[in-house]
Amino acid sequence: MAQTIDKIIVHADDPGLMYWFVDGARMGPLRRDYADKLGIEIGALWSKAKARKVEHLAQLNACHAAALAFLAKRDFTQALLLERLCRKWPEAIAQVTVDQMRAAGWVDDKTYATRRAAKLTERKIVSPEFLQARLSGEGVPDSIAQKSARAAATTLAQLCAEAKRLIRAGKSATSIARVFSRAGFDLDTIESAFAKARIPWNTES
């Protein structure tokens, strides 16, 4: 026996969502634009095929809402957001949602990289290589990570100034070199900073 949709009501808290009833059984909620595309209206026939489509769209709707909730709390790269959503939804559903977030401007890897690089270098010395590795590890594409890291990382002039400051604070050249090394700077860069700052240093000490 064919089933039909006999009633439609709007969600009490969100007018963009709606429920519908099939032979007295409540279905949904589902975004109204999705429902319109599926032809969900009073008197329309209800079938298993339509039910499967509704389930797919319902997952998209829930995944979309979750993504917005995540993004309201913090920034994500596309890769990080996809990984987070895949914990609960199929990858295909999660990927469609990430694409929607990107298209709407909610996710932007370049913006993420710029903000994250600024945060990681705030009052800190950080080498471009160290910074690029951190950004890449958080899902920023390599080309974007490299560009953002170079723009935000500590320059040789800044490294030289920091070396002078630490010398005035009573630190030894060797201890300063260790600090610089932990920040990702290689031996050649450290030696160049010391030479520019006119700080004698025996690399074998």
Whole-number mean pLDDT: 93
Q: Describe the largest sheet.
A: 4 strands, antiparallel
Detail the poorly predicted runs: none
Q: Strand portion, in percent?
A: 5-15%
Shape: rod-shaped
**What is the domain tally?**
4
Q: What's the CATH C level of the largest domain? A: Mainly Alpha
Number of helices: 10
Q: Would you list the SSEs in sequence order as H and E?
A: EEEHEHHHHHHHHH
Question: Quaternary arrangement of the chains shown?
Answer: single chain
The amount of helix comes to 55-70%
Name of the CATH architecture of the largest domain: Orthogonal Bundle
Q: In what order do the strands lie side by side in the largest sheet? A: 3-2-1-4
Terminal CA distance reads: 89 Å
- CATH T-level fold name of the largest domain: Arc Repressor Mutant, subunit A
> What is the SS-derived class?
alpha+beta
Rg on CA atoms, Å: 28 Å
Would you give an account of this structure?
The chain contains ten helices and four strands, in the order βββαβααααααααα. It has a four-stranded antiparallel β-sheet. The longest helix has 26 residues, at 48-73. The model has no long low-confidence stretch (mean pLDDT 93). A hairpin with a 6-residue loop joins β1 and β2 (17-22). It folds into four domains: 1-46; 54-107, Arc Repressor Mutant, subunit A; 109-152; 156-197, no CATH class. The protein has helices at 32-38, 48-73, 78-85, 91-103, 109-120, 128-137, 142-152, 156-168, 173-182, 187-197, and strands spanning 3-10, 17-22, 25-31, 45-46. It is of the alpha+beta class. The radius of gyration is 28 Å and the shape is rod-shaped.
